[in-house]
# Entry
Amino acid sequence: MQKESKSYLSIFSTRGLKFILCAIISIGPNTLFAQERIVTMLEDGWKFTKHDQPNFADIGLITSEWQTVRVPHDWAIYGPFSANNDKQHMAIAQDGQKEALEHAGRTGGLPFVGVGWYRKEFELPQNVQNKRTVLQFDGAMSNAVVFVNGKKVGDWPYGDNSFYFDVSE
# Structure
């Protein structure tokens, strides 16, 4: 009986998944000869929600009510905008301000906090099964936690830089 090759990828980030570009990279045995490398881009067909539930990483979760997005995706730009988001009272010395004034902050009034979940369902091609497989992300906003087939494979607390996880098992 052939092993099921369907994979479910779930990611959540406490500040959202601002810029993500996923690739599965499969590499053959480590030899002195040329190695085959297959890259599959996973940009389209992601499911997204700003809700948060403990079962969101589970296999078979119904996501029909979730928004379909393409990555890179920044959920903060959809608002709602509020001048109270990240409002700051301070004097900006570089602008010559001597006393504290109200400023919109670093986010320009965008809702920059919260949890966002992204899910992607895909099948591994036959020619990459049982080979080294890496999921590479090119810039989740911050605090990304990655699940494959319902199991946590790693987390990345930093924002806006590349990271990867070996998910060969």
